[in-house]
Amino acid sequence: MHDKVDSLVPVLVEEFLTARATRKPSPHTLEAYRRDLLAVARLAAQRATPPLPLAELAITDLSPRRLRAAFADFAAPRAVASVHRAWSTWNNFFTFLVAEGVVAGNPMPAVDRPRAPLPQPKPLRGEDTPERLLAAVAQQAGRQHDPWPERDLAVVALALCTGLRLSELLALRVASVAGRPGERRVDVAGKGGRPRVVPVEPELDEVVAAYLDSRARRFGARSVRPDSALLVDRRGEPLRRGGLQYLVDSCYRRAGVTDRVPRGARLHALRHTFATRLAEDGASAAEIMRLLGHASLASSQTYIEVTAGQQRAAVRSNRTHRVLVGLVGAG
């Protein structure tokens, strides 16, 4: 049974963060949890009658009504995504307290939360950036310690031409690129255990074949067995998450396009570029959904909407519109 001190909200917040630390979140994530929990708790303390210092706020002071009022105060100056994140943190906090026997139930279902906004696509900036990237990666850079342009080109081309996630690329086997000539495909082990198939055009098929040929020359024919990892490092070992991210970053640097990569996107920018170009070329949301392995049509629709906005901006930039100003009714 918790005593009075142990039932104070700031104390319980630190207990929760200590428990969360076993999951190895980043220090930034832990600090975000603390900030969201204490910000709402401080507002709840101010709502008490009379107002309480945060240090004296007990968990029993947090009734559903007071939490609703505190979240309303918290939400007023903040973006939807920030409010949604704080609600999720508090929900996890109370789930922890229920499991620890500190409280009997979780009051958060009684607190409304905004719908989480769909993340906006972050494709590579610049119309010619994908082509510039591919051309640079295909060249053997003299500064590289052990250049392997066939492998680097295969990685970038696969991401740009299939839209696979990082985890999906790492899960590919040599046998994942399958099918008869003219009907080639990539068999993908998708997110959430949802398999899907992405068609492979002859040009991409040639890039992958050239990479596998170069790999056989480097490490022997046994290195390209059907059940072996499709993407490997310069030692012939399966690429891992950090290695793949570093490889893509180095490709951006070699192509001189780091300033065209949206912040935080990295490899995902290649997936978003694939989807954005599909939308620009007239693919429907349903087609994008199937090819990218989205769980909902809404995620795919964002690419259509972004493209429509870009088209309107392009039309608006036409100088002729400025000529029209003042002409209506002039006759």
User: Regarding CATH, which class of the largest domain?
Assistant: Mainly Alpha
* Helix fraction bin: 40-55%
3D shape = elongated
Roughly what fraction of the amino acids lie in strands? under 5%
| CATH level-four homologous superfamily name of the largest domain | Intergrase catalytic core
How would you summarize what this structure contains?
The protein has helices spanning 9-21, 27-47, 64-75, 80-99, 129-137, 149-162, 166-171, 202-219, 241-255, 268-280, 285-292, 297-316, 320-324, and strands at residues 177-178, 185-189, 195-199. It has 331 residues and is mainly α. The protein has two domains: 5-110, DNA polymerase, domain 1 (Orthogonal Bundle); 129-316, Orthogonal Bundle (hpI Integrase, Chain A), CATH 1.10.443.
How would you portray this structure in words?
With 331 residues, this protein is mainly α. The chain folds into two domains: 5-110, Orthogonal Bundle (DNA polymerase, domain 1); 129-316, Intergrase catalytic core (hpI Integrase, Chain A). It has 13 helices and three strands; from the N terminus they run αααααααβββαααααα. The chain has helices at residues 9-21, 27-47, 64-75, 80-99, 129-137, 149-162, 166-171, 202-219, 241-255, 268-280, 285-292, 297-316, 320-324; strands at 177-178, 185-189, 195-199. The chain has a three-stranded antiparallel β-sheet. Strand 2 (185-189) and strand 3 form a beta hairpin. The longest helix is centred in the N-terminal third of the chain and has 21 residues, at 27-47. The radius of gyration is 26 Å and the shape is elongated. The model has no long low-confidence stretch (mean pLDDT 86). This is Tyrosine-type recombinase/integrase. Residues 7-98 form the Core-binding (CB) domain. It comes from Micromonospora cathayae.
